Amino acid sequence: MIRSNLKPAVISAVVVAILTGLLLGVRLDQQGTTLGLVGAGPDVYWKIAAAATFLFFFNLFRDQLGALWKGLPGLPKAPAKLTSLGDKPALRRLFWCFMIAAAILWPFLSNRGGTDLGTLVLIYVMLGLGLNIVVGLAGLLDLGYVGFYAVGAYGYALMAMYFDVGFWTGLIIAGCLAALFGFLLGFPVLRLRGDYLAIVTLGFGEIIRILLNNMTWLTNGPNGIGGIPKPTLFGLEFSRRASEGMQTFHEFVGISYNSEHRVIFLYLLALLLVLITLFVINRLLRMPIGRAWEALREDEIACRALGINPTAVKLGAFTIGASFAGFAGCFFAARQGFISPESFTFIESAIILAIVVLGGMGSQIGVILAAIIMTILPEMAREFDEYRMLLFGLMMVLMMIWRPQGLLPMSRPHMELRT
Amino acid sequence: MKMAHKKALSRMIAAAALAGASTCAVAADTIKIALAGPVTGPVAQYGDMQFIGAKMAIEQINQAGGVNGAQLEGVVFDDACDPKQAVAVANRIVNEGISFVVGHLCSSSTQPASDIYEEEGILMITAASTSPDITDRGYQMVFRTIGLDSLQGPTAGNFIVEQIKPQKVAVIHDKQQYGEGIATAVRDVLLANDVEVPVFEGITAGDKDFSALIAKLRQAGVDFVYYGGYHPELGLILRQAGEQGLDVRFMGPEGVGNTDISAIAGESSEGLLVTLPKAFDQDPKNAHLVEAFKAKNEDPSGPFVFPAYAAVQVIADGIKIADSTDTEAVAEALRSNSFETPTGTLSFDEKGDLKNFNFVVYEWHADASKTALTE
Amino acid sequence: MAMPESLYYLIQQLLNGLTVGSTYALIAIGYTMVYGIIGMINFAHGEVYMIGSYIAFIVIAALAMFGIESVPVMIVAAFAISMMVTSAYGYSIERVAYRPLRGGNRLIPLISAIGMSIFLQNLVRIAQGSRDIAMPTMISGGIDIGPQDGFHATLSYMQMIIFAVTLITMTLLTLFISRSRMGRACRACAEDLKMTNLLGINTNAVIALTFVIGAALAAVAGVLLGMYYGVINPYIGFMAGLKAFTAAVLGGIGSIPGAVLGGLLLGVTEAITAGYFSTEYKDVVAFGLLILILLFRPSGILGRPEVEKV
For the Leucine-binding protein domain, which residue ranges apply (chain B) (predicted)? Predict the structure, then answer.
């Protein structure tokens, strides 16, 4: 048995040596204008040797290890339990109430940094939920989602710059503008098949970013737009001194000024937007259009046969998804106070997509969980500094192998007949 | 002395009470300085320049007895030059009750972060962000120890007009805040002096192929090229221009003045003109500092090393003069005094910019050395 | 008879575009082959190209250190070792990030590949530093086309080498696919993976081979471009991968001649836009062209229209 595994074991060890020997074992060294080579040092050689040896023995004894693994008790199946929550509406409701309460209490329990991080998480939750409609529910692979996010952010920033529009009006305008872009793009491209759609949307996202960068006369180009007004609460500002004709929150309530109020307000506002998003999507899911999205994802031909117009249904998903990105973008612009095109690169799209897939496509609680993980994890791993992105990439790969259906796979809202 | 100290303390307590956070008060024996910039990401090497300069200053000030009996402590925050993370970093700095920041590096990160610092009364000195917008908003807490794009552009533009006297100049930039800002300033000077600018174009940072652009420059018959941006792209442009037989002189800002440009462009980098802040590491009176960097195996030649050193020193001296760590008092001290630093005698104007920051035009050589053409 | 200068300018821009396009094509083939057989987008392919460049630089620097200065020896060694190493990478990527995921939802391997791409990029960054690494020009000089006094087009020897290598590689690959036993197995897999497996062909080996060939071609591009531009950093793979992917889709993903055509078309479009319009908009026009072509030919220029089956 071991003998039959000898060949793959040797091969894997050799492959590891080839993979790492040159690339990690030596280091290109530019001294002034000449190019030289230096060794990477004994610790790297030891690591390479250790990795090769490990793989050698792993492959040599893989059958025994496999048997051992099977003998171990299975992993606790916590996620499965969570998904079964869907079966018990009361429990489910309780769970959601608990979640919302915890989210509301968070800024008061945490410090300013934590609250701000929470706001960032909520922006990603919003983006994840929006993209979830397009990718998770309708099954349309959109790699340029960040384009709509940019449209929302710039929509608000430009409106504020040129027409003095406030946050709340800006929010609506940004959402509508992003939806319009989604509609206009979706109209011609939605008849393309999955992977073609992916690259077209990717190209679209890039075009938006480049245009924002190039149209200096309108968008200030790479200099970005600064001084974007912060949100107000029924006309009350969260600043030390009120601007003309306005009143500040702390004067109105009669407490002393504390800049943390605004951070908390921004957080609660983001939370509100997320809750609205969740509510709207949950309603949509129960409506015919929501059912049609999922049906379309499963079998397009069957849907046609049933008289569903695929283009219209896809267009609906695309437009609604885009409008949520617009809301998120508007909020992002308000939180930052300054935006520039470099915040809207492809890697941002990739992260949002990773959130959707990590969470389990179509699953909303999964998207929330994934957004938290994807935002917090890099912050936590900051001690590893240079290894942070490396681990991030590795985690994405391992996650997909370990749980391709996502952390918390979707459970469909359905009713069961009790017997 | 004692009175002032008490006053500062009471102010601090008031500030702590205002902020409402319990961890806000600064311990009496250490003054924390946040060093914010990219530790990770594609421009991490520029962040390094800033960090080694600031850390050296902190180390040396502490060795000399600290500031008013307190030791300085540098805390590094990584913003990866991402505006989104810069805001998060700024909030964390507020959270940790740090009142002084040296950073950030990229202008697009400095700008949103400085909004928060201004609000919170945190004193920020950037040693690397050169965008004029940063100090153009009437902020009281924002300073910088480096020159502005809008200053460097005219220096270069005037040099071209007066010394080179070309007929047709192409102005190229990398479509980023820094490069486009300088390029626009240069173009404006040239146009004002009736120099023809037939090509004014942006390239994409990170691109590798500029053959189409070079053919265009050849066809346009330009006899001088100004490039606003960083060294990787200009290095490639020079190299490809040499290969395609575009034989004109190039000029660039301090972002191209890096030894790597000679490694990339080889012989083609001979004769390149570069506007640089005075090479502080070449200044004889900084010889001991250069030694100290070399002893730690660090490279003191980066453009942001000494400005970052100066930023920390200015903060320390400001605290000494104000005799308090209250940032408003320190900001006031910064505006009304001048400071002896390795980058020269610094004094700040109302906006928080240096009153006199001179750029020198250098001629670059293929072995990455340079000779000054102006004073 | 003297031709007008503008014509030479056009020739110059076409040559520039074809050079860039050739390298897009070489990378695009890796995408298209993998897609053709298992219908997955190998997003980490651009990073393999980047690794190819690094290995080439390391090999050349090592040879120079041992005092071997002969340019042909250096180039041959760089090609051989670089292709060997990237083949190992192609093989490992397939084993680690694709094989366990085959047959599931098609989004899953895509995410896994994006993760792999981030991983490889940062692996190289940590091992080799994020600085640009430059190499002196190895092959200089070229020929001029047109009058010496006015504007004339130049074609460097390096550009000629790129054309030649691309042409030879394409020919060999086409012969391999159409004539060899293994190539026939590849085509069979592309047609119907399950059926091919039933007929006794080791489809796992065929898929692994596809990844290996794609990776080796990326190494060819990596070595060529490394020498042509003379500068590498860990981030070059992403943009090159994106452009090559665009080229593959433009030509019709899954079709090898399509990838070549798409690459060349993309390269020429970029050069013409930069030359006659503005460099700033070359990427916009490139992606715009892609969208336009897909509108009229939803499966790309040479792609087979997919027949939907129940």
Answer: 30-365
Domain span at A290: 85-231+266-402
Q: Which residue of B has its CA nearest to C158?
A: B243
How many CA atoms does the CB half-sphere of B372 hold within 13 Å?
A: 12
For C23, which DSSP code?
A: H
Helices (H), B166-259: 177-192, 211-220, 231-244
Strand partners, C232: C133
Burial C112-141 (b: 16+ CB within 10 A, else e): bbbbbbbbbbbbbbebbbbbbbbbbbebee
**Minimum CA–CA partner of C84 in chain A:** A18
Q: Is B192 on the interface with A (CB under 8 A)?
A: no
b/e burial code for range A247-285 (CB count within 10 A of at least 16 → b) = ebbbeeeeeebbbbbbbbbbbbbbbebbeebbeebeebb
Between the alpha carbon of residue C194 and those of residues C38, C147, C191, C200, the distances in Å are 11, 61, 9, 10
Of B42, B201, B243, the CB nearest to C280: B201
pLDDT score for A37: 84
Give residue C65's domain range: 5-296
Chains linked to A by 3 or more Cβ pairs within 8 Å: B, C
> How many structural domains is chain C composed of?
1
Instruction: Round to whole Å and give the CA distance between A149 and A142.
Output: 13
pLDDT digits 0-9 by tens, A12-66: 888 888 888 888 888 888 776 778 888 878 888 888 888 888 888 888 887 777 7
For residues C216 and C163, give the distance between their C-alpha atoms in angstroms, rounded to a whole number: 17
Instruction: Fill in the amino acid letter for B22.
Output: S
Give the CATH number, domain containing residue A310.
Answer: 1.10.3470
Residues A220 and A138 in one domain: yes
Reading the block at residue C148, the tokens are: 């010496």
> Considering its fold, how many domains does chain A have in total?
2
Torsion of CA B245, B247, B249, B255, to 10 degrees: 10
Contacts of B261 in chain A (CB under 8 A): none
Q: What is the ipTM of this complex?
A: 0.87
Inform me whether the pLDDT recorded for B55 exceeds 90.
yes
A400/C109 CB distance under 8 A = yes
Residues A95 and A50 in one domain: no
Cα(C244)–Cα(C263) distance, rounded to whole angstroms?
7
Give pTM, 2 decimals: 0.84
Q: Which chains touch C (3 or more CB pairs under 8 A)?
A: A, B
pLDDT in tens, A142-153: 889 999 999 999
Cβ distance of C122 and A200 shorter than 8 Å = no
Task: Compare CB distances from A390 to C64, C126, C299 and report the shortest one's residue.
Answer: C126
Give chain B's domains with CATH numbers: 2-146+304-342 (3.40.50.2300), 150-277+359-372 (3.40.50.2300)
More confident residue, A88 or C39: C39
Nearest residue to A399 (alpha-carbon basis) of A359, A343, A340:
A359
Q: Which of A395, A4, A54, A301 is nearest to C97 (CA)?
A: A395
The verdict on residue A156 lying in a domain is: yes
Please report, as a single letter, which amino acid is at residue B296.
K
Query: How far, in Å, CA of B41 to CA of C182, rounded?
Result: 43
In a domain, C212, yes or no: yes
A103 with A59, same domain: the answer is no
Confidence at residue A347, expressed as pLDDT on a 0 to 100 scale:
81
- The CA distance from C189 to C208, in Å, is 12
B39, B84, B177 member nearest A223 (Cβ): B177
The mean per-residue pLDDT over the stretch B363-371 comes to: 87
Token pair for A224: 């970005």
User: B366 — phi, psi (to 5°)?
Assistant: -65, -20
**Residue showing tokens 């930023």:** B311
Question: Residue A124 pLDDT > 80, yes or no?
Answer: yes
> Cα torsion for A177, B87, A367, A280, to the nearest 10°?
-40
